[in-house]
Design goal:
The complex is a heterodimer of chains A (435) and B (276).
Chain A (H helix, E strand, L loop, with lengths): L2 H10 L32 E2 L5 E2 L1 E5 L26 H13 L5 E5 L6 H18 L5 E5 L6 H10 L2 E3 L7 H7 L5 H24 L11 E7 L6 H14 L4 E6 L18 H16 L4 H4 L13 H8 L6 E2 L5 H4 L7 H13 L4 H6 L4 H4 L3 E2 L12 H8 L2 H13 L10 H12 L1
Chain B lengths: L7 E4 L3 H14 L5 E4 L10 E3 L4 H15 L3 H10 L5 H15 L10 H23 L3 E3 L2 E6 L6 H11 L4 E6 L4 E6 L2 E6 L10 H17 L7 H7 L31 H6 L4
Parallel strand pairs in B: 1-2, 1-3, 5-6
Antiparallel strand pairs in B: 4-5, 6-7, 7-8
Classes of the chains: A alpha/beta (435), B alpha/beta (276).
């Protein structure tokens, strides 16, 4: 089989993996080698679906002995199969890398023959890259569930980031759709990687040149919309993964129907992209804004509002927290205001050292006044001419996607969601009470 | 003696030249109305004054930036000079002027008009540099990697460190079409050359092969059901695409006809509901 055909098959099989980040590690190049890594990550291109292409994302092979119902590469699916030879893949990576097409390699694999055998082939590819080509670029590798932990340990010494995909957020879903996997088979390798990373930190303290194990940390992915699990479950699980396993990232992937299984959404179902988007927004709130999962959702409200983003939604439910005085509030308080993010909060702290801030100034610092105006005061004053009417509030607080959905619903009388009352009314009531 | 303000400075277009304008202004106690480079056309009735570039004077001003304003001020203003801001010279002059008066606090004064404009321009410069660390596309021409870019800002001085570090053993050339500047690297030295034009050589068969592989990858990695060109355009503006391999039409005809990505198996079903 020609390389181009292999590349097509093995890319096509790998594309449902959401993660394509090259972040988490700074490494300068070395004489005699090729490559470096930048901790912010670099996007090299964007595909037609608007997702970043940073790494050469391929499978080692798409042959698989497992039959997970949600997966394109399941045993029972009739698709063309291919495998890369380790040397062939290493050369392709280097040639792409030289031309600055990619930031590195993202290697995953179906399970061929046995998890250990698959893992060995992956190790061989990475060994050729690291030891023969002296490649110092980014490598993200998937841990193969069921492989021997000694092999995973070796894989981790070559890679920058490792991931084990949770895929399905609950035990029941896993039983139904991936009978060959158990909760244990996913969390054991994850725990092992976390353990090795911690161990490695201690080694590095003692020996500066100790080999580094997965220096850019560990990540995982969950599929959204394949099973009836709700946002609250997913977010709670995400939070516990960050806490317990010290993961760097949790990715969410809206389920694309790829099979006709009775337990799965039928083909042609639209992927829940808005839901995926809301989960990412909430994920950011957990990682950078000091929010906790229980603040954003609870037993009663277990799904995100389709029209309002999670932060705005929290703010509207906690109007007692507002208005916040921009010239006095501390960093963590500033971060809770809709329309103010990490960058603008930092800018506010910096700028108010020099002069007290007014609304004009805030605009220059990158604050989205359209949202923030309802929640802040500058030197004790609200913004001039602030009007709280149904329409203005809707226009400023509903997210872009929310507005599209809302106005469509209103004018075309299409009902996508069960919420009977207009969200605008709630919003106006909330704000009206304060003023 | 009060400072006079009815003169326009003209300098040679280099950063040193601009610093000499600052020197002149302080020695002669005059505030220039505008500072223009050699190439910009004459467009005003105010008297013009040619400012000679003298290395020693420029160094004196440069040292004073670190001492009287902030250790980072020199570097910041050098970067300001690389931006595509229309009247960057006079803004840099005003920044220095204000900096001498209030010192390092100027960097906190983010709402001040001059500081704000310069900050915004520098952010644009850094952002474009970052994008180009990813969007530069090399072609292998007999062992030398060549690339052409057309950025708005003069990003090459900031890009050079990244690429020299990344490819220490390669020989490469990046040509900036906008600023007619080329970065030439061979192990282990880099050089900037001014060049009026550059025509990359025709690709050979091996190069063509890797281009096709990359295009195939780029085409296959997109998920049809999530097709979203608007999002793609936001992250990867059209103006960069002229020089990116994956968006170029391949010139020579392929040995076999181009097929739709995934004409077999389940991919067919996915392809059928792809939005146009």
């Amino acid at each position: 089989m020609e390389t181009i055909e292999k590349l097509r098959i093995l890319t096509d099989a790998a594309k449902y993996d959401a993660a394509c980040t090259s972040s988490g590690i700074n490494r300068t190049g070395k004489k005699g080698g090729i490559g470096s890594a930048v901790s912010a990550g670099i996007c090299h291109s964007f595909s037609a679906d608007g997702r970043c292409i940073s790494l050469l994302k391929v499978l080692m092979t798409n042959c698989c002995i497992y039959d997970c119902k949600y997966c394109v590469n399941r045993l029972s699916n009739d698709v063309p199969r291919a495998s890369f030879d380790p040397r062939e893949l290493a050369e392709l990576t280097i040639e792409f890398y030289r031309r600055n097409y990619i930031e590195g390699l993202f290697l995953s694999s179906g399970v061929l023959k046995h998890p250990d055998y698959t893992c060995e082939r992956m190790i061989e590819t990475l060994r050729i890259l690291r030891e023969e080509y002296h490649f110092h670029g980014y490598i993200h590798v998937k841990a193969i569930p069921g492989a021997d932990s000694a092999l995973l340990g070796r894989l981790g010494l070559f890679a920058d980031r490792m991931s084990v995909n949770v895929e399905l957020p609950s035990e029941q879903s896993l039983k139904l759709l991936a009978p060959d996997k158990s909760r244990e088979s996913i969390f054991r390798p994850m725990g092992m990687i976390t353990g090795r990373i911690r161990e490695n930190h201690c080694e590095l303290v003692k020996y500066r040149h100790a080999p580094r194990f997965v220096p850019a940390g560990q990540s995982t992915q969950m599929i959204v919309g394949a099973t009836p699990d709700n946002d609250y479950q997913i977010l709670k699980l995400t939070e516990s993964l960050y806490r317990k396993y010290a993961l760097k990232r949790v990715f969410f992937s809206a389920y694309m129907p790829v099979s006709d299984h009775a337990l799965l959404p039928p083909r042609g179902t639209k992927p829940p992209l808005l839901r995926e988007h809301r989960l990412y927004q909430a994920d950011w709130l957990l990682r950078y804004y000091g929010f906790q999962a229980d603040e954003l959702l609870d037993e009663k409200h277990h799904d995100f509002h389709p029209l309002v983003d999670p932060k705005c939604s929290w703010a509207l439910a906690h109007m007692e927290f507002f208005p916040v005085e921009i010239n006095r509030a501390d960093y963590h308080t500033l971060l809770r205001i809709p329309g103010i993010g990490v960058k603008s909060a930092r800018a506010i702290l910096q700028a108010r050292k020099a002069a007290s801030l007014d609304f004009q100034g805030l605009k220059k610092l990158g604050v989205v006044l359209k949202r923030a105006q309802y929640f802040i005061t500058c030197s004790g004053k609200l913004i001039e001419g602030l009007r709280v009417t149904n329409d203005t509030v809707l226009r400023s607080l509903l997210s872009e996607q929310g507005q599209a959905v809302f106005y469509q619903e209103r004018y075309e009388q299409l009902s996508f969601y069960q919420q009977s009352e207009l969200p605008g009314k709630e919003v106006v009531q909330c704000l009206g009470r304060r003023m | 003696m009060p400072w006079t303000t009815d003169v326009i400075y003209r300098y040679d277009g280099s950063f040193c030249g601009l610093l000499c304008c600052v020197f002149e202004s302080y020695v002669k106690k005059e505030i220039p109305l505008d500072i223009v480079s050699e190439e910009s056309p004459q467009g005003s009735l105010y008297p013009e004054k040619w400012i000679e570039t003298i290395e020693v004077r420029a160094q004196r001003v440069y040292r004073s930036l670190g001492q009287r304003i902030h250790p980072e001020a020199g570097r910041f203003l050098k970067d300001c000079f690389l931006t595509c801001l229309v009247s960057k010279e006079i803004l840099i002059y005003r920044f220095i002027n204000l900096g001498y008066r209030i010192g390092g606090r100027i960097f906190n004064n983010l709402t001040e008009e001059t500081v704000h404009i310069l900050n915004k321009a520098v952010k644009h410069l850094y952002h474009e540099t970052h994008l180009l660390t990813g969007f530069v596309r090399f072609s292998d021409c007999a062992g030398t990697l060549v690339s052409v870019i057309e950025p708005k800002n003069n990003v090459l001085p900031l890009l050079s460190g990244h690429f020299c570090d990344r490819y220490p053993e390669e020989r490469f050339l990046i040509y900036d079409k906008t600023h007619r500047l080329a970065l030439v690297y061979q192990p282990y030295q880099a050089e900037f050359l001014e060049a009026d034009g550059f025509l990359p050589p025709e690709p050979d068969a091996r190069e063509e092969n890797f281009r096709n592989l990359w295009k195939k990858f780029h085409e296959t990695i997109a998920i049809e059901g999530r097709y979203n060109p608007k999002c793609q355009r936001t992250h990867l503006p059209i103006r960069y695409r002229d020089y990116m391999t994956e968006f170029q039409q391949s010139a020579p005809p392929l040995s076999h006809p181009v097929e739709f990505p995934g004409t077999q198996g389940n991919a067919l079903e996915d392809g059928s509901n792809r939005p146009l």
